[in-house]
Protein: WD40-repeat-containing domain protein
Amino acid sequence: MQQEPTQYELYDPPADGITAVQFSPTDSQLLLVSSWDKTVRLYDVAANQQRAKFEHRAAVLDCCFSDASRGYSGGLDKGVNMLDLTTSTDTPLGMHDEPVRCLSWSQESSKRPVLSHPRSSLSFPL
Structure:
């Protein structure tokens, strides 16, 4: 017997196309969403509530969690930001020569975000 997939319609969704969605590795109720509308939004899907919203200068192409209280984002503005999901503040970590297309959190590489672009890969010390 198959279970039907659960669907969520998010309250206050991004105004433009969604570029990435990531569930928290430590809290399955938390969803991080990046968008062409220059934002990253944190949702509590169980409560259908937006908990935080972060602005970039250009479209955000990817986002990731490190845990339930911290995330990272990057995009066409070429910057990588650390997102404090508890206080709704962001901290620029650095710039790349090209737009940031892909971000991931690496436990193995001294707990730092790793970004990649077709021609390069970088990790940012914290």
Summary: The first strand starts at residue 18 and ends at 23. Residues 26 and 45 are 14 Å apart (CA to CA).
